[in-house]
């Protein structure tokens, strides 16, 4: 390779390197969904078929909860987050014991475009990179959800989906 071609190749490499460093950093787990006005009440379901026909999925997330929480605290924290983003229904999925205690975190995974839950729900198809690293499954159902006597001495990761229903 002659000198002029090598210099052009190096210049292009440096240009692409600098281009990749520019711009503002975007947190991949931050909420990037549609903006809805906050809601005042959130209903919870545990199966997608329980969603009303007009309910649209607009956020798919994993919720990390620290050790020592109760079912009531879990619901309170998820209520706050869901209401702030305009959800009036939340679909709760499975829960797992976490390997590390990350405190309260909400990691958003999509969707790219909101969709009707009843027509297009395909199950929990996101976040396997984080989900698969966790421990055994934890039972959080109707008996535990919102229950101040259901105590979890270990950190928990919970699947959730925010819905907006008319």
Q: Care to describe what's here?
A:
By secondary structure, this protein is an alpha+beta fold. The protein has one domain. Helix content is 25%, strand content 27%. It is globular, with a radius of gyration of 21 Å.
Features:
single chain, 166 residues, alpha+beta, 7-stranded mixed beta sheet, two-stranded antiparallel ribbon, 4 helices, 9 strands, 25% helix, globular
Largest sheet, strands/sense/barrel: 7 strands, mixed
Indicate the proportion of strand residues.
25-35%
CA distance, first residue to last residue? 65 Å
Number of domains: 1
- Molecular shape: globular
Q: Count the DSSP helices.
A: 4
Order of secondary-structure elements: HEEEHEEEHHEEE
- Rg value: 21 Å
**Which class of secondary structure composition applies to the elements?**
alpha+beta
Summarize it.
By secondary structure, the chain is α+β, with helices and mostly antiparallel strands. It contains four helices and nine strands, in the order αβββαβββααβββ.
